[in-house]
Design a protein that fits this description.
There is one protein chain. By secondary structure, the chain is of the alpha+beta class. The protein contains four helices and seven strands; from the N terminus they run E-E-E-E-H-H-H-E-E-E-H. The chain is 25% helix and 24% strand. A hairpin with a 3-residue loop joins strand 5 and strand 6. It starts with 13 loop residues before the first strand and ends in a 22-residue tail after the last helix.
């Protein structure tokens, strides 16, 4: 039996899986690495199906929109699994979906392959440039050190 007077605070039974891609993102590029799916759906409530989608955001969203096979994979998912958000963090770029309760929570092989393909696009997108290390020694190295 449920509690007739539930408390509005405390631990909730909601879970969310986050996939982190290690990528240095500069402050000027935060919007370039931000993306979210915008879904076209048909039906109501339990019978709601995804019939189309597009990515909204920066340069990453443009690259993801070009990938037709990725879009087809996302369209085949449920509405909750097809809602994917990508945003930069301090040490990388985070990919995550909607919050789920303990019974719905899980990552299918199809969903993992979608996240993996998105991670590949994130790695290909040019991020913060690493400083070039220039040798301060002058002259040439002895034979065998090349």
């Amino acid at each position: 039996m449920q509690d007739p007077d539930p408390l509005p605070w405390g631990a909730q039974d909601r879970f969310q899986a986050h996939f982190i891609v290690r990528k240095e993102v500069g402050d000027s590029q935060l919007l370039d690495f931000t993306a979210r799916t915008k879904l076209q759906t048909k039906g109501y409530f339990g019978s709601k199906k995804v019939i189309g989608m597009k990515w909204v955001g920066g340069k990453l969203a443009e690259k993801l929109n070009e990938n037709i096979s990725l879009s087809e994979q996302i369209i085949s998912q449920s509405v909750n699994d097809a809602m994917i958000t990508i945003e930069p963090t301090n040490n990388g770029v985070r990919i995550f979906g909607k919050w789920k309760n303990e019974y719905e929570f899980g990552i299918t092989n199809d969903l993992f392959s979608i996240y993996d393909e998105i991670a590949g696009h994130i790695k290909k997108l040019r991020g913060k440039q690493k400083p070039k290390i220039v040798s301060k020694s002058r002259g040439t190295l002895p034979k065998g050190y090349n």
